[in-house]
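Internal ticket - ligand job 427, protoporphyrin IX containing FE:
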Amino acid sequence: GVDPSGRPISANAAAFDPFHETFQEDPAGSLRWSRDGEPVFYSPRLGYWVVTRYEDVKAVFRDNITFSPSIALEKVTPVCDEATAVLERYGYAMRRTLVNEDEPVHMRRRRALMEPFTPAQLAHHEPLVRRLVREHVDRIIDTGKADLVEEMLYDVPLTVALHFLGVPEDDMAMLRKYSVAHVVNTWGRPTQEEQVAVAESVGRFWRFAGEVLDRMRQDPSGPGWMPYAIRLQPQMPDVITDSYLHSIMMAGIVAAHETTANAAANAIRLLLENRPVWEEICADQRLIPNAVEECLRHSGSVKAWRRIATTDTKIGDVEIPKGAKLLIVTSSANHDERRFDGPDEVDVRRENAGDHLTFGYGAHQCMGKNLARMELQIILQELTTRLPHMELVPGQRFSYLPNISFRGPEHLWVQWDPARNPERTNP
Ligand code: HEM
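stdout (structure tokens):
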């Protein structure tokens, strides 16, 4: 076959399948061939151009005019008529938020909504994060064995996210189900039967977001990012639109917790698989902030993101036609040896660990990055203090929700001997 510019498609490019297990488990490793020899290629299975080297991925992020983020929340798998009908029945209308908004509206909206993300504002959330993590560790500390995702890593970021947004913390189990449906609906490859069930959950999620928003509008005086936006709306109605508020109410819940929960699970797995590194940070917790960056680099929770070319252009030496959809593989960029020495090694003292692209880059770079960092640091501080001798339950196989963007194990089993917990001998 040939690509849309008429060039022959290589065997590797033809075989690339972002839903395959190898990409879910090791996205960077599975694209080494591309970084080495064909750093920009057309994937006929996906209908996207795939970009895998650090400098190219960064260049795409840097120019959000040529490479628009408008497709960031587009369904990667077209849905069947039946699922479309379900979504219509719920009035599903996910449109522009921040992450998929073009300029100049995007930057006006981003600036207007930035204040709750400033370090001074984020500091208010730290005691809550600390308390939540401690309570969750209390619950498991004497059991000797736990699935950390189930017992802690999902709940903590979800509670923090709802608190940050100002959304009531009931219905957490339901929100978890909805969030999974949203990921599958937008970034996954559901079968026709799955599509209908997924659409049902996505529709309910959309309706739920609308109801929460309506209640908030009646009294928007409370704390949180959503009431803050509602209060701003009268001053800038063309920037903070009704459609924006409804869309971000749903997308924000997912953006703020799935990514962080997955990042925490990836980090703990990576550190425990590299035992000497885990022991190093147990012995010196000052290493934790950079360890968090190294874990986000090596084993991030966002593995790829999307852009669309608004004009004929070039990435590296490769010509890209107007309208080309791009999968920019941040996880591959983060393992590019042109940027990171020994990129597959875990080095918590790595000087440029923080140059990873897991939070994106440029105008749309993740607004929640410092909240996520705080959560990850506190989780590692508490676990290295209270369960320093925990280890992965051997022989477990990790499973992932097949999708093109998010990555984290669905379960993470660890074990330890409660008799050896430091607080038994040194309460
Ligand atoms: C945007 C990753 C946590 C809110 C993004 C983007 C990525 C990302 C890749 C798109 C960047 C781009 O297009 O250049 C992550 C990861 C997280 C995380 C890996 C956790 C480890 C959070 C949290 C929040 C949040 C906790 C909110 C409390 C946002 C928002 C945007 C965004 C509002 C849109 C920014 C814009 O388009 O201007 N994030 N995120 N994220 N994220 Fe996060």
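Auto-summary: The pocket of protoporphyrin IX containing FE is lined by residues 61, 69, 98-99, 110, 164, 255-256, 259-260, 263, 300-302, 305, 358-362, 364-368, 371-372 (CB under 6 Å). The chain has one domain: 11-425.
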